Amino acid sequence: MTVNNFTVIGHPIKHSMSPYIHKQLFSISQKKYSYGILDIPPEEISDKMSILHSFSGFNITIPLKQAIIPYLDELEQKSTFYNSVNTVKNSNGRLIGYTTDGIGFCRALDAGGADLTGRTVILGAGGVGRVMAFECALKGGRVTLAVREHSLPSAKKLCADIKSKIKNSKVDFCLLNEIKGKIDLLANATPVGMYPNSNSCPVSEETIKKSSFVFDAVYNPNDTLLIKIAKKNSIPAISGMSMLVWQAAAAQEIWFGSKFNANDINRICENAVIQMKKKFGNIVLCGCMGSGKTTVGKIISQKTNKHFVDMDNYIEEKAGMTVSEIFSKYGEKYFRNMEYETSKEFGGKNGFIIATGGGTLMNPENVNALKENGAVVMLDVSPSLIFARLKDDNSRPLLAKPNKDEIIKNIYDERIETFKNAADIIIDAESNAESVSKKIIQILENPLN
Length: 449
Prior knowledge:
Elements: E1 5-10, H1 18-29, E2 34-39, H2 49-52, E3 57-60, E4 74-75, H3 77-82, E5 87-91, E6 94-98, H4 101-112, E7 119-123, H5 127-138, E8 142-147, H6 152-165, E9 170-175, E10 185-188, H7 205-209, E11 214-216, H8 225-232, E12 237-238, H9 240-256, H10 262-280, E13 282-286, H11 293-304, E14 307-310, H12 311-319, H13 323-330, H14 332-347, E15 352-355, H15 364-370, E16 374-380, H16 383-390, H17 404-422, E17 425-428, H18 433-445
């Protein structure tokens, strides 16, 4: 066995957030352990067991949570209960299976101020729904499984299973469009709302409004449409990233007894959301005009193989005229509407380096759209450097006046705090574009930054 060597297995698994989360947890515990990814199709698991025996422990995700069970030496009680394993500990060559999904779910709710003692309506009756339903029943709460018609047999079977294993449990099921009555906790256990189908919601707003609390197991995006609708109606809501991080923390408790507090977990959740966007989504460059967004964006694009788009140029191509001509012919309001539509368009795309126009992020709706699937990086430069770069530039409508230095200073003062508040990462961009690009790429490639 290789000491202190861990991994996550599944198929496909290249988009897993587990390595990032576990390395963050290692950092908090001041442990210098390794953690990787191992893609194993279900039909190959038997052939890979010798490799798995070399790890101190490993995590399991779909579709291997049940497939791994015949190859383990022992199962902890909850794993037997759920017939599912997501964590394995190598104890002197013996592989012992555990499940921390239920722990992650309960701790996420506790940290968010929700509980399972009232009526919980669970959307879906698959693996995640099973965990939620059993945990709720174990707490003495009432469970309603709400499913699509084709999942009614699964819901019926799960209800029977819960009743057979938990004495006096209160559980029933219905169709998604037949949910009735007051809901203490509405919990989504389906993939509905997951990126790239992030404009989908598993239930109507009317159903959400009946709820006192909302939980969504989906963590990409962090704010699903379900979460957004809940927040819009002032209903407390918890995203799936909290459950993901708490169950990872529980795995490390099993491996070597590490303990983590709610502040640790909240910080990792916040960082993990940004890291998820950095790794899989868009990089949105913002800053005052002249901060170098286009030049830096092109360099990053070449070195990361992400597509580059300059929003102003993109708008010009769609309009068939320059930004100055749009301002002159239709006015600034028309241009800002085009900016908003472009922000929404790229907020739904993936794999882009986006250079925003100087005023794009002054509109909060543009910020929300671009951050849907993007991490915002601000290029921070001084007004004096902006003036030095733009003193001979007469192409920008807002600078088409003689007192250019005063205009630049006013625009800077007006916008700088908004940019800083919108930014996930702020970069000192006073140096040349190559140096600035290198700094950003280092942050993208080093998840602990």
